[in-house]
Design goal:
The chain is α/β, with parallel strands linked by helices and 350 residues long. The longest helix has 17 residues. The radius of gyration is 24 Å and the shape is globular. The termini are far apart. Bound molecules: ligand PBG. Ligand PBG binds next to helix 7.
Length: 350
Amino acid sequence: MSGWLFRAKAKNQRTPRYNKHMEYPVTRLRRLRTSEAMRSLVRETHLEPGALIYPLFICSGGGVRSPIRSMPGVFNLSIDEALKEAESAASLGIGGLLLFGLPESKDEEGSGAWDENGIVQRALREFKKSRALKNLLLIADVCLCEYTSHGHCGVVRQRGASYEIENDPSAQLIARTAVSLAEAGADIVAPSDMMDGRVAAIRDGLDEAGLENVPVLSYAAKFASAFYGPFREAADSAPQFGDRRSYQMDGANLREAMREIDLDLAEGADMILMKPAMPYLDVVRAARERFDVPIGAYQVSGEYSMLHAASANGWLEQERAMMESLLSIRRAGAGFIVTYFAKDAAKVLG
Ligand code: PBG
């Protein structure tokens, strides 16, 4: 034994370097960067339009295309205009749409969310008639915050001077919403509320309604984030009091994010979504290494707005910054990306 160790050591001493051909000047990594063709040959991470999901904000009326001030290029669209936008996304090869609704009226419970004639339900029925959209997945965001008068993602119960977002009644309403959206034609339902147990409630609801083939894409790790600011203007969903920190996750917690994912998968989630993307790439990476399910990441409104604002000032090159941001999310481990840049990026990808 000691003789073997001794021999190994002696041999190492004769050849001090493990393999001199691994080192400069024999090895020069710049050789593989000399031309675009060379860089393309050795590129490790790729983007394709089919891996991009484009969010749409649908409102009532006809011919409406009203700009969101903080999100250049993003609009509130009536169903007819949204259909045109969807068809252009389909012709660019984009993978799917994520649909949000702006109802005509709101109430305490958010009943517009599960109304069979709700805004997204109507849009889904319309979209399903279009042959041009047959290869575009219609993903319905499932939440109450756009539909509740108070702007919270669940039912609010007053408790003396304070209030509470009630978990279990909210999960029931969310499940009802998911069933109604799937019945209207959603290919995938995506709960974004962060109530405990909502994935199980949705799965039960779908199965009971005979919709056992509709997958659940759960926003499993959704952090309470300042980067949702512009979305709340787009979806008119800012909480009227308090904040979302009693249901969305604390940005400091990676291990808790893994527990959230574990639970959602145990409850029957088919795919998971991480959100926001760029400030949480470590969460995407950790989830990719730990779970063998499809993982997406949501490059949220604030990420989009800040890149736009910097390029509007001439501080960043818009196209390069956009592509680099998407590549970073993909490299971190996201198979697909929800992004307001979907159409712009698909055009670059050709
Ligand atoms: C609804 C929902 C939000 C986003 C997606 N679904 C807003 C929020 O939680 O406040 C944010 C998306 C974005 O910022 O682009 N619960």
